Amino acid sequence: MTARIIDGAALSQKIREEVAQRVAKLAGTGVRPGLAVVLVGEDPASQVYVRNKVAACEKAGLYSKKEQYPASMSEAELLQRIEVLNGDPTIHGILVQLPLPPHMDSHKVIEAIAADKDVDGFHISNAGLLMTGQPLFRPCTPYGVMKMLEAENVPLRGAEAVIVGASNIVGKPMAMLLLAAGATVTLCNSKTRDLGAQTRRADVLVVATGKAGIVKGDMIKPGAVVIDVGINRGADGKLCGDVDFASAREVAGAITPVPGGVGPMTIAMLLVNTVEAAERLG
């Protein structure tokens, strides 16, 4: 059996077209959704992510404002800048690209963003709303994964879902969204004993560790849906995921590729969250 490939690039394109329609509708009321992306420092990967986010905004008709600052910027200066953006009526979403320079407290910076402009969904009040099943903003990557599962008609109610990786950005919010959909969820971390015993139970397996090839084909239940959130660079210089794609696709029922899987969906859902913010804030 060779797994069906879940095409995140095609689905993200469809979502971007829907976003463009919503943007056009808002334009009729005199509102143009605006996203401010703040980048501190020279991290090459962050620069690529920010460039892609800004380009996606402009293509869908959103107003995007990129603010880039040197790594020497003080935390106080960044907090002051966020305060200005919080009060700017042309900005509906604020995204501070992580990681930040070591002298900055990322939790403090994220908490400074107004909760109703926190389109990443990382603010503690948005995390709490998600936890209680009443999300204002769903974090973009888990939200994108849920859209992929929905598009593939994957039955989640009563399904065994296993998540490898317990970060605040992907693992924990992913668990909350899958729980809300009726799945039975197991959340694994770096201290999980016998990881394979956990992953082989999964009808839906989401892997988000940042460790290339941590999940091999023999760790996957035959016919399972495998979502690979990881983006790594292999020894050959090519992008690869956290799942060993070659062995996994021979066992899984459906699988996301890297690149072309979850990555494009993350940006598409950022656009959705920004439009939703504009619809609420006006």
Write up what this structure looks like.
This protein has helices at 8-27, 44-59, 75-86, 106-112, 124-131, 140-151, 171-180, 195-199, 245-248, 262-281, and strands at residues 4-5, 34-40, 63-69, 93-96, 160-164, 184-188, 204-207, 225-228, 232-233, 239-240, 254-255. The protein is of the alpha/beta class. It has two domains: 30-123, 3-Layer(aba) Sandwich (Rossmann fold), CATH 3.40.50.10860; 139-263, 3-Layer(aba) Sandwich (Rossmann fold), CATH 3.40.50.720. The strands form three sheets. Strands 1-11-8-7-5-6 form a six-stranded parallel sheet. It is globular. Pathway: One-carbon metabolism; tetrahydrofolate interconversion. One of its GO terms (molecular function) is methenyltetrahydrofolate cyclohydrolase activity.
Largest sheet: 6 strands, parallel
Structural class: alpha/beta
Low-confidence stretches: none
Proportion of helical residues: 40-55%
Strand order in space, largest sheet? 1-11-8-7-5-6
Instruction: Summarize model confidence as the mean pLDDT.
Output: 96
- The shape, in one word, is globular
Strand content: 15-25%
Q: What is the number of beta strands?
A: 11
CATH class of the largest domain: Alpha Beta
Number of domains: 2
CATH architectural category of the largest domain: 3-Layer(aba) Sandwich
- The SSE string, one letter per element, is EHEHEHEHHHEHEHEEEEHEH
Essential attributes:
globular, Rossmann fold, 40% helix, 2 domains
